Amino acid sequence: MPINADYRGPAELPEVIPVFPLPGALLLPRGQMPLNIFEQRYLAMIDDSLRDGHRLIGMIQPDAAHSPDEAKPALFKVGCVGRITQLAESGDGRYILELTGVSRFEVVQELSVLTAYRQCKVDYFPFIDDFTARKGEDDVDRAALLAVLTDFLKANNLKVDWEGIDKAPNEALVNALAMMSPYGPPEKQAMLEAPDLKTRAEILIAVTEMDLAKKRTSGDPPLQ
């Protein structure tokens, strides 16, 4: 999805960004994530990001395995910053918005701040390839990805827009399927931290194959 801002490299993004910890949420570069914002601290975060002009929010998962403080859980070290590309007011105090992913980042340091929402100093340079659209597409095994998608759809009695999938370039296809996948925080984090698109697709395929095998063995019902 095109966006008005043209981010050509890490230097064009702020070193300090607000972060939105959300378990199971996966945002990837050039992917779109809808959000329903209702907590006061995150409403303030959206207001501040618009007021500051950068319109950027860092999506990151809480690290439940290393979180002694439930009120302020530890964060994974890698997240993805997104730009607010759509925003609507609900009329009952909520924001309905869409983030478009820009680049992944590593958390350098969480800052002590006066805001109710959390802020981190981050580094985008480890993911400099994120600024090049469709990088590594030719290395993706599209046939294997579509095969496992077909098996997943059949196992769960789901339908999909195959015409749209056929037209989607590999980057959009891999990232959309990864973001929409029904897996937990560890699997989502592994896909986020994948070094390239090919590896992300391979992780998605492996996780899906394991999930399908587990369902066949256990007789679990399909997704509803």
UniProtKB/TrEMBL annotation:
Annotated ranges, domain Lon N-terminal: 17-212
Top-level division of the source organism's lineage: Bacteria
Protein's name according to its UniProt entry: Peptidase S16
Taxonomic source organism: Tardiphaga robiniae
